[in-house]
Structure formats: structure tokens, C-alpha cells
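Example with several molecule types.
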Amino acid sequence: MVNENRTLIADAFSKTGEQVELCGWVHRVRNLGGVRFIVLRDRSGQMQLVSDADFPLPVESVICARGTVRASDKAPGGAEIALESYNVLAQAAPDLPVAVNQDPGGLSLGAILDNRMISLRNPKLLAIFRIQAVCVQAFGDFFRSEGFTEIKSSKIIGGGSEGGTNLFPLDYFGKKAYLAQSPQLYKQAMVAAGLERVFEIGHAYRAEKHETPRHINEYVSLDVEMGFIDSERPLIELERRFMAYLFETVRRDNARELGLWEADVPNPESCDAIPIVSYDEAKDIVKKTTGQRVMDVNPEAERVLCDWAQKEHGIAMVFINDFPRRKRPFYAYPRDQKTMSFDLLFRGLEITTGGRRIHEYPMLLEALPKYGLKESDLGAYMDIFKYGCPPHGGFALGLERITQKILGLANIKEATLFPRDRQRVAP
Amino acid sequence: MVNENRTLIADAFSKTGEQVELCGWVHRVRNLGGVRFIVLRDRSGQMQLVSDADFPLPVESVICARGTVRASDKAPGGAEIALESYNVLAQAAPDLPVAVNQDPGGLSLGAILDNRMISLRNPKLLAIFRIQAVCVQAFGDFFRSEGFTEIKSSKIIGGGSEGGTNLFPLDYFGKKAYLAQSPQLYKQAMVAAGLERVFEIGHAYRAEKHETPRHINEYVSLDVEMGFIDSERPLIELERRFMAYLFETVRRDNARELGLWEADVPNPESCDAIPIVSYDEAKDIVKKTTGQRVMDVNPEAERVLCDWAQKEHGIAMVFINDFPRRKRPFYAYPRDQKTMSFDLLFRGLEITTGGRRIHEYPMLLEALPKYGLKESDLGAYMDIFKYGCPPHGGFALGLERITQKILGLANIKEATLFPRDRQRVAP
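Resulting C-alpha cells for the full complex:
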């Protein structure tokens, strides 16, 4: 049975004078002059229980506690429970490896991740993933409302889709296969198959040996692809509207979580002001701002550009388009010596790469050798274009990067439930 | 730019007398006595264009066509376009490997899958995945409305979570890792971390060498886990309500797709009548119905049980609970010699396995040796229970199996966009 008598803590504060039963984890126990103050935690919040009797359970034990709600100016939230009885659902061992009732700022990233099963109990760390869940929901809701259909493509592929480097090899029934770097080919295939507008929420894998605060080897890619566009501009305008919707949703649904982190999303309305600059203009802005000439829009340049956008346009976000061909894959649609492609930077970090793709079979055949590719390397991918594909394009957002930047987290691994890096495959 | 003048085909039928521009794929071309009847297809439907002039494009070419909508009793849908002009967005090669404008019943499964990039253009085959998208959406919407939080757990694991057999090994930076068989441990971890109610939509991998119409090696698992329950019954009642919601949603949102397959979901209201029988009772029912004694509830028994339920309870679905311990993993919560676990059968196929899990650390330590396991085999998993875990349980639904059974497809691969089996890793 579900316990029919249980009251969620968030609902208990308004039940002054009533007898309630709360179920949750023992978050904190203090003994002040013989009075025990026990903070109980459930999925909805925390509440103080007060008792004169001994309370022998270690923190993190799970109990159901009964008592009467009474108003109290001193209690957090303005009410507490006079504890009358409780029963134990699970008693915790007393040697908790990391404290979960203190600000996690005192813990190293290693300690947080090595003890992931426990550290996630810290309400501030768990809040990260409540925000992430809302980001996933907002993504699906927004694109469905725009006529997009969700797809689920395979993550096991026979060969590399975008050059073949940085792939994790897999023993697939004695044959070599790989984990997919992105659903790029599949989302294009589904546009061409007639869905026209598709999105996918799925894992992507990059066997890159980097060790930076912005990279993980397995991440959740929020992918979008749409047909019947003739440049990257409709994609940029679509993403601009999505970002406004995302910020509006997170601000509304995650007020408590944002509060714990003293963080906020940009004003949704200011998404209208996100500037669009070309790749060359972006380098010029960096030069004008810092006096330094940069060859690439590197991570330092991304930070400079977002600071510039905050100052000049009131929001720390920038679209960069017109990337040179050498910076983009073979399928990027050319415009003179540039491509109809773009990045979106958010608070100093690239969170999106996208663009129009080549949809014309002859143009694609012409492009391949410039990238050291031939038609047979691409297998069934070429069929998409050989048999009639509308002009199209799309983009992908990194879920963990968005979460990281909303909260201002130093390392992307903090925004990943069970992060995978070169050293870490557990827990 | 997005073409501002474009009208979706579904919207064009009501615009009699108006000039419209339609964009899509040339689905069919017929020449009847010098009059060309061209069926154009877009994501919203199909419409006939009529022209006296030559129409030289192969089917599947992508065009934007302009003309006036006129009522016609003979035209499908009651209206057609008098074609005035068109431009070509992409010309298809004339050697289409499989026809996409005929009933796919004439194609072998091999032909459909070998030419997947093209066969998906067949509106009847594409309809499968429009229904699947609605199933995914309904799953998220329902469980969010019940207070569940979505999680995204890692699919790369250091060791086997449920015995270690049937895992795909992976070369992870020179070390051996595996693809996860299920998010089982992670969803339990997130219940214990304080979310209490979680769901995940993600891929699961089984390196099983089977070749059956109900197995694929990579599938989408719809996972649910919830805390503060004391048997499998609340899980069964929760899933019963979800199935009713799912059928209601598919019937409402996928009427066109169900029509193409001449299929229907069960009456949502009849989900109240889905019987719950114990594992032993299930075997008795099979014996009474067929005269044959079965040792296991095998695939043939699953079909018999669903036929029985249809006849006796008006719906071809059965919950089976009280599975014996030997049939369930180490974490299944015992009840006498049985377990608090269940399956759900739908139209002759198991689509769910679930149950209450052991949440008490001492009970888990006692159970492990019976399954040939020791505490150190389970790594951080044991921390979940050592430090206070509420009673909990959950279940998982196979997305492709649900889709298969809604439409009555012979093989689960038909319900998988890019299926992976022993032989197939492409496209």
C-alpha cells in the first residue's frame, strides 16, 4: 500500500493544530538543553520535529513521524511538529562518508563524485537535477508545440558518422561497432522520411581525452532538425524563442532550486536582444575588447564575447554564424567561403552548434573529397539525398552545459548525475 | 527563410477557390489520357495536383507547387489543386530501391530494413513512429503529473548490474567497460537520494544472441521507480492508470495512424478490468485452457493468458504477480517463497517487469549469497541501502513492444527506427 495517512512536508505547514504523519529522511538532529530538534526531509521540503525524548537514530535514517503541527516563529518555515511517535523504515549506518546537511561548497569535486550515491542527497546538489529535469521537459514541450516529432535513433553504429575519430569501439557479437557521436545522420534521415521536423533527447559519446571543466565523454544531446528552410536564420530564430521559453519555465518551476544556488536565468524577454555576429566579426570584437588578435573563437574568446553581449545587449548570449568551411563538417551548407552554420554561446560557453545542411546530392558529392571522404564511406546516408531531400538544417544543445551555466557551476561534471570521464566509469 | 507562403496540405482542403503553395514529396504520378494526376505528400497529409502539362520528375522529388484549390468528388479528401507552377527543391534519382507509395505488406522485413532510409518514407511505415512518439510523450506527461522527476543516468558502466551476463563490452580508454542493461541501480539511487519518484526514458542494451520476433539488442526502456510503498500493488495500480492514459492519448492523437493499420488500442476504461493473477494461478489457467501443464509462463503461455483475459475480462492484458524467487533477481522483495514482483502481458507479450525491491541493508546482505553475489561485487550500489533507503519499487516498459502490440506488428524490428540485432548495425 501507499501510506494513505502521509502528508507531504510542503503541505504540512498550513495544517496548524492538526495531527499529521510525515515520512522522510532524518536530515539533522540537535540536542539543545535536553530538547531534540530533528529536521525531517522529504521530496517536497524540510520540517522541524521537536521532542523531549531521546532520539537515537543516525542522520539519513528513514522514518514516518506523527505529531501535531504548531506555529513557531523560531522554526524554519514558521511551523514545527510536536513529535508524538515514529516508526523506522530504514536505519542508516552512522559513518556517512560525506555530510549531506551542510553546504557542499566545502567538498571537493572528487569527494562529491566518489560518493555520488550519498552526495546527491544533499538538497543543494539534488536541486541541480530538478532543474535539469525541467530543462528536458521544456525542450520536449516547446518543440512538440512547434510541430516537431520525437525520435529515438540507435546509439550503436557500424562506422563513424562525422569523420570517425573520437569514437568508443564496442565488441558487437565479435564485430567492431561504435557508440554514436551524435544522431546527426538519423535526424536528417527522419526529416527526409517525411516527418520534416524532429527532435531527439539522447546520449552522445565522444572518446576525447580532454580533461576540462566543459567536457564529459557521455552527455545528453538535445537535437533538433527541420525541413524547408533556406538558411540558418530560421534555426537561430527558433532557438532564440526556445531559450526564452526555457528561461521562463525554469524561473517559474525552479524558484526554490535557483534560490538555493543564488542563481537566476537571463530575463526571457532579453532573448530578443541576443546579437548575431559573424565568425569574423566575433574575432574583431575580441580584438577590440582585449587588444589581442585571436585565430579562433576559443574558450577565452567565448567568455569575452558573452561579456561584450551582456554590456552591449543586456544578455550574456551571442549567436555566431558564417563559420569558415574548415571549421565545419562536410555537410555544412556553403555560403561563399563560409557556411550557413552557427554556434550559440551562453555565459561564456558554447551550448549549441547548428546550421543548414547540404541537401542536394550533386553538391554533397562535390564536397566529400574536400574532406577526404568518398561516397562509399557514408553508406546509406547518401540515399537520403539521392532520392529527394528538402532543404533543411538543425542544431543540438548540450543538456549538462545548459544546466551548468544556469547555475554557474565550475565544472560540467557537477551537472551530470553519473559523469563519465577518462578515469571514471563508476558509480 | 521559412517559406511564409507555404500551406500545409491538411490545411489546404478547406481553402477551395484560393491560390495556395504546397511543398512536399512527389508521392505518385499517373497519366490518364494526357491529364497528369500528381499526389503530393507533406508531413500533414497528401493532396492531388492536376495538370495538362508534362510532369517529368521521378517520384520522391521535392517540390513547391502553386495552384488553386477546387472541390472534386473524385479527388481523395474531396479537393484537389489545379497545378499552375512549381519549382524543384530536390530531384530524386529514378531508381528508388523500394516503392514507398504502395502497401508495405508486399515487402520482406529484410527489404524494409536494408533500405531503411527510403522505406520509412512509406506513410504506413512512418505512422509506426508517429505513434511511438505519442507513447513517449504520454509516458512523460503521465508520470510528471504524478509527481515523478525525469532522470538521465549513464549507459556506460564499470561492471554488470544484474549478474554480468549478456553485456556488450566497450573499450573505454583502454579499460573494459560495458553498456548498461537497465537503469535499475540508478533509478533506485535517485529514489533514495530524495527524489522519491523518478522516471527515465533511455536506451538499454542486451547482448543476447536470440533471434525472435520479440527481441532486439538495443531498445528504449521506459523506467519508473517510486518510494514509500510496501508491496507491488501500488505499482500495479499506477501502471493500470498509465495504460488507460496511454490508450486514451493514442486513440485521440493517432486516429489517422491507427486507421492506416486498421488497428485500435484497448478501450481505456477496460484497463480497470485487467486481472491480477499469481504466477501459480497463471500456470493453472494455461493448464485449464489448453490441457497442457507448463513449467514456466513461456511465450506460448503468455498468448494463452491474454486470450483468456480477453474472454473473461474483456481486455487482452494480464498482470502476473508472486513470481518465485528463482525467476527474479537478487533485489526482488521476498514474500514467503515468492516475490513481490509482477509482469504485465499485453496481447500475448510481456511488456513490463517490475516489483518491490529490497531496501533493508541486512536483508540484502542475506540475499546476495543465494544469488552467488557478495557485497563487494555491487560496489557503490550497497551505499544506497547502508545509509537509509525508503521501501520502494518500480517497473519498466519496453517502448518498441508497446508499439508493436498496439499495431499488431509481427516483428519488434518493425517498431524500431534503426533496429540492432546480431547481424545488423547499419543503417
